[in-house]
Amino acid sequence: MTDDTSIGIDKDFVEFIVKSIVSQPDKVIVTRSVDDMGVLLTLQVAKEDMGKVIGRSGQTAKSIRILLRVIGSKENVRVNMKIVEPEGGEVKGGEIDDEAPKGSVLDDNLEV
Questions:
Q1: CATH architecture of 9-83
Q2: Where are the domains positioned within the chain?
Q3: Contact criterion met (CB below 8 Å) for 17 and 48
Q4: What gap in Å lies between CA 29 and CA 32, rounded to an integer?
Q5: By the 8 A CB rule, do 53 and 45 touch?
Q6: How much is the pTM?
Q7: How far is CA 54 from the centre of its chain?
Q8: Is the dihedral of CA 13, 15, 16, 21 positive or negative?
């Protein structure tokens, strides 16, 4: 393994794959850091491309991580990938509206 953390076949691999998938390849940023746990690749993409990178039920991201494990095993290094949620992301965990929308199943005043 090289001493320079900014280069690596794993980083090049992720950049190539993700830029091939997304519609805005110029906004793909992959940073690489090495510590005692192994290599961590941090991936940032445009907000519109998050669904393409993650895939249905996370299958695309899972597949990329599996291939990174194969690349890492070749160099006896553990390689992980973290996908950073872009600013202004649409995921809002735990927020529930206090009242049900009109005409919903929970609306008691519904005429049949």
A1: 2-Layer Sandwich (3.30)
A2: 9-83
A3: no
A4: 10
A5: yes
A6: 0.71
A7: 5
A8: positive
